[in-house]
Amino acid sequence: MIKIGYHASHEQFKPSTLLKNVQLAEQAGFNASLSSDHFAPWSLDQGESGFAWSWLGSAMQATSLSFGIVNAPGQRYHPAIIAQAAATLSEMFPERLWVAMGSGQHINEHITGDHWPVKADRNARLKECVDIIRALWAGETVTHHGLIKIEEAKLYTRPAVAPNIIGAAITPETAKWVGSWADGLITVSKPPKELKKMVDAFREGGGEGKPMYLKVQLSYADTEQKALQQAHEQWRSNIFPSAVLSDLRTAKQLEQSAMFVREEDMKEHVRISAEPNQHLEWLQQDLELGFTQLMLHNVNLEQERFIEVFGDKVVPQLVS
């Protein structure tokens, strides 16, 4: 089943606003949602960052949507806590939650005061966390002393069906690696040739036959210029390569790095159009590549208009 989701961007909106938005999205025909999980926004212009795990309980109670959350266990979160949080939600709302796991960004993780490891060590830490979480969901008592330390941990409340763990990747190298251990792939929108590289790498690494999810970064507004301008205002800090987004420490640093990003530069990173049919064409190309869940993130602030128009003109064409 094709799922078209609404992305709940905690960096841009208060949790109360996002709760209303996911309810509107369900009423408009969206059948899924994806939640970010940050301690800080990507820029001071965004200016929010609610605690996603608290919000998920309310959002799953208020709707019947399936939900995903992008999470980085290992530093800000001990994996036992994530295992318990996801298990509790999955017990209350069976088979409606999946968790995407990645190696994280310094902007969120530096708050612990711990050393920020190099990418290879972050990947190794992530894989330890995934193994621990799966063992806890299986009912095992877990003791492990490695990059992660855990002693005699056991989850007493577990769902009948554990959530899928989806590997988060934004480079082909990482996509190939997560293919070997994840239940599926999530990545972000790119031009078709670049996305095909991600798909091929994931499948080559062991992901053949596993589900693939796509977070689609777009900007829709009444006019092309408005869509471009608002994308630049809200999302110019998010267009940098993985190494930059992962290693800068604060929203202020990212904002300063984006000082010289021009409006026209956004077109390479965000799908910008005032025409619903153009967005529909782009999304159909994503489905042709093998993605089965498309999580639509309208990066500007006009969420209600986006939900209304896409619910009328785009979503029905994709899920029919």
Compute the number of helices.
13
Query: Given this structure, which CATH class is correct?
Result: Alpha Beta
Structural class: alpha/beta
Number of DSSP E strands = 11
Strand content: 15-25%
- Which second-level CATH architecture applies? Alpha-Beta Barrel
Biggest sheet descriptor: 8 strands, parallel, barrel
- Average pLDDT confidence is 95
Estimate nothing, just give the exact number of structural domains: 1
The geometry reads as globular
CATH H-level superfamily title:
Luciferase-like domain
Kindly report how far apart the N and C termini lie: 10 Å
The H/E string reads EHEHEHEHHEEEHEHEHHHEHEHH
User: Under CATH, the topology is which?
Assistant: TIM Barrel
Which blocks of ≥5 consecutive residues have pLDDT under 50?
none
Query: Helical proportion?
Result: 40-55%
Taking strands numbered 1, 2, ... along the chain, how are they ordered across the largest sheet?
1-2-3-4-7-8-9-11
How does this structure look, described?
The protein is an alpha/beta fold. It has one domain: Luciferase-like domain (TIM Barrel), CATH 3.20.20. α1 packs parallel to α2 and α1 runs parallel beside α12. The relative contact order is 0.15.
What is the structure about, briefly put?
With 320 residues, the protein is an alpha/beta fold.
List the helices and strands and how they pair.
Layout (H helix, E strand, L loop, with lengths): L2 E6 L6 H14 L3 E4 L16 H11 L3 E6 L7 H14 L4 E5 L4 H4 L9 H19 L4 E4 L3 E5 L10 E5 L3 H7 L5 E5 L3 H16 L4 E8 L4 H12 L6 H6 L3 H7 L13 E2 L3 H13 L4 E6 L4 H11 L1 H5 L1
Parallel strand pairs: 1-2, 1-11, 2-3, 3-4, 4-7, 7-8, 8-9, 9-10, 9-11
Antiparallel strand pairs: 5-6
Helix pairs in contact: 1-2, 1-12, 3-5, 6-7
